[in-house]
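Hi P.,

Sorry for the delay on this. The queue was packed all week, but I finally got your sequence through. Input first:
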Amino acid sequence: MEMNFKCKKCKVVFDCDIGNFTIDESVMSPVFDNPILCPNCGELKIDDVDLTDLGSEQLAKYAFNM
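Then the structure:
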């Protein structure tokens, strides 16, 4: 699954294939099968990116279709 992110380090907006995901209910955060890869900064943690509006829509759409 492709998801749209904004890197907090370099501010670039990019799409990334995150594979499937689950929700870690202890911290209410998504856990992705594949790493988040910024084209400029490389592999990032979830705290290093923001979901764009499009990314939020993609996440919600995928979650409701599971």
